[in-house]
Amino acid sequence: MQNDKITIGIPIYNAAEWLERSLLSALNQTYSNIEYIFVDDKGNSMDIVRQVLETHPRGNDVRIIAHEKNRGISASRNTALNNATGRYFFTMDCDDTIAPDCIAKLYAAMCEHPVDFVAGSFVLEDMQGKKFGGCHYSQTLVEGEEGSHSVAYYRYGSNHRILAYAWNRLYDIDFLRKHHIQWEEEYTLIDDAWFTYQVLLCAKSCLLIPDVTLFYLCNSSSVTGRASAQGYSEPIARQFVSIEKKKSAYIAPLADAKVYRGLLADIMKMGVYHSYRVIASLSISPKLQRKYAYNLLHLDTIPPRSGAGNYTLWYCTLRLFFALPMSLKLGLVRLMVAIDLKQKIKRWIHF
């Protein structure tokens, strides 16, 4: 097997209780040729980082890059990516852990099937250490010609699962740089959604593997944990509105591609989902709830052209909903919230 250099980039911000175990899981990888970039985003836990590195055999393989001020997780991931010298790039959060052979397994899969990215399976872990659920892929190779949007068609045209997380994936750095794929730094709270969308639309190939390579901490104090427990905050809602608008503009050149109606269905579905979460939130004022829900339920996309994909039942249903007057759409979403639809259907559908 080859021995290409792999860069692991980890944003460091707080998470003091979990940081040491996270760093050790990365530093104790069985794969040998790893460059580590830890990005100091001006939290309160860098003393822990330095203590770990002082005694670890791989301490000299770590570069610490310090921001002048706190810039958020998206900027931190960009700092790691932009300074990476490896052929492949892997990122993780500083409260998660990875299996000892995580990088070895992802790299072996990449060597067997050179693709734009390899995604591993992962398991959730609560704050008491109990493991449950997560995402378990079947071994799946998705590939096509340059410009075929084969990965996007697999995800959005055929409705197969590739979760919208940037972590636990081994990326070909040349692929990311060729397509100018970066994290959007204005998205300081929800960094994965826009980055992953670019990856899925630009990738011509990927490999999903069943091996569990990461353990995702369900941390109640994290942004994701607070959003799950308390609902959307105003900044989170504003950032999701921005992402959905950005997605609408990003897919405009694909109006005659066979994946296009699938992409439209995704934008409409996410518009309904985010408007539901906005209206259900107790921390967003009624005035802002209406403003954000209006923006999410207003479809601002180019109509499909010839060859833009199939008229699926899901697409047609969403299209009919979006053709309704705005007052009726808002009323229906409020009704969904009133009957707690999300809770009722979560057993069958992620909503």
List the helices and strands and how they pair.
Elements: E1 6-12, H1 16-27, E2 34-40, H2 46-55, E3 62-66, H3 73-82, E4 88-91, E5 97-98, H4 102-112, E6 117-125, E7 131-135, E8 140-143, H5 150-157, E9 169-172, H6 173-178, H7 192-202, E10 205-217, H8 223-230, H9 234-250, H10 260-280, H11 286-297, H12 313-322, H13 326-338, H14 341-345
Parallel strand pairs: 1-2, 1-4, 2-3, 6-10
Antiparallel strand pairs: 4-9, 5-10, 6-7, 6-9, 8-10
Terminal-residue CA separation: 43 Å
CATH architecture of the largest domain: Alpha-Beta Complex
| CATH topology name of the largest domain | Spore Coat Polysaccharide Biosynthesis Protein SpsA, Chain A
Shape: globular
Largest sheet: 10 strands, mixed
The total of helices stands at: 14
CATH superfamily of the largest domain: Spore Coat Polysaccharide Biosynthesis Protein SpsA, Chain A
What is the averaged pLDDT score? Answer: 93
User: In total, how many domains does the architecture comprise?
Assistant: 2
Beta fraction = 15-25%
